[in-house]
Amino acid sequence: MDAPQLLLGALLFLLPAALLVRTRGKQRPRLPPGPPSLPLLGSVVWLTNTPSEIEPLLRRLFQRHGPVVALRMGVRLNVFVADRRLAHAALVEAGAALADRPALASAGFLGEGDATISRAGYGPVWRLLRRNLVAETLHPSRVRQFAPARAWVRRVLAEKLGEHSGGPDAPPPRVVETFQYAMFCLLVLMCFGERLDEPAVRDIAAAQREALIYRSRNMPVFAFLPAVTKHLFRARLDKARALRRRVDELFLPLIDARREYKNMKPGGQPRKETTFEHSYVDTLLDIKLHEDDGDRPLTDNEIILLCSEFLDAGTDTTSTGLQWIMAELVKNPAIQERLYNEIKAAADDDDKEEVSEEDVHKMPYLKAVVLEGLRKHPPAHFVLPHKAAEDMEIGGYLIPKGASVNFMVAEMSRDEREWRNPTEFSPERFLPGGDGEGVDVTGTKGIRMMPFGVGRRICAGIGVAMLHLEYFVANMVREFEWQEVPGHEVDFAEKNEFTVVMKKPLRPRLVPRRAHSTRTSTH
Prior knowledge:
- GO terms for molecular function: heme binding; iron ion binding; oxidoreductase activity, acting on paired donors, with incorporation or reduction of molecular oxygen, NAD(P)H as one donor, and incorporation of one atom of oxygen.
- Its main location: membrane.
- The chain has 523 residues and is an alpha+beta fold.
- It has one domain (29-489): CATH 1.10.630.10.
- Helix content is 49%, strand content 8%.
- It contains 18 helices and 12 strands.
- Helix 8 packs across helix 9.
- The longest helix has 32 residues, at 300-331.
- 40% of the residues are buried.
């Protein structure tokens, strides 16, 4: 065989090998592992599991497949991530790629679109709405303006809880209902600029909560074959629309009253004692969408949706967080006593009516208690889902464009590889020398816990949420000793509602610490 033939033979042998190596080198990463799927239905696990009970299913899948798993709901690919380092790489280092939101079929069926901060796509409308909320209502200067509102709600809370304080034979109250009412009082005032009486607040709270719980339990089904399920479950859509109409009926008069107040000429009727000088609705009435989005003000329907979002985001999460923290203080009286001693030292005067917001900033152990409550009992075990804007990788797996990606908040903050004794309630871990010292809940430098999410879609209200938790915990501990009641022992079992709540609500004995404590009229 001469040289040309040898060369040709070598080329014929090496070329396929080279192409194979090149092809392998360019192979795309595989999709995240998960259970097998059926066309249209999605993952076969939905034959025996429901989306409302997804967390135990995901734990089993993580044990089997590792920290990144995939489930299909209908034709949509849903990816779940349980590792904090992968979460940081995806949400912070590659934040723009996951800053979008998947569309909700149920929202479309209800005619709601995506005109809220939490659901809007990553674009100019979202930026406008979020910038407005952060700059005009949640900015520290605005938050300080609401200090009288917080003081009023603290008095409401103390009075409502005081009604149930008494001797050992007094029936222990379900305090979470009082927490929810008090937080609605505060958020309704911040939203509509009006201090409403108790029946009006309770009407709004009941309408909001019923709509919220109904949707969280009954609307996930529309993620499966929406073209079919919208006909099969039409009654659910009708019920959701009726609940929404009830909210509209309650909100529209308040919005109209605020519009009239804003348009009042100087020197007109004096402001009522119950009317606050600033409200979230004021800012929404001033918004004008960009030219590409209609060059128009927000509609009443859009304002109602944003008000609902504002109330939901600030009431359920805070009242849930308060219940978990107070339950831990009931179960751990030594921690409660240490916190009470810090409060007494910082407040400095037993005759003061309240622990002020300035006092709160001087209490490192209080902050540690709140952080430990959020670590062990994050009110939401998932962040809102993100949508991949482009093909990307997480943990070496392909996340195709359009896939939904979610992150396991509770799994990260309870990971025994990252936290010492994570099932214990130990605020000391957030003090100097503890394994949580210097933790940044914004996750900018690294994620250890993410109760408010991280990255570009982090909760806009993180600052005011921390203030509310610290302020109300401090005042409740100063006002009462929280004791466990035989027969109503603290049970940390969880239950999924809109947030993750105590399956068995907290029912403590409340012993007043200050006999001379002033009881102020609720309204």
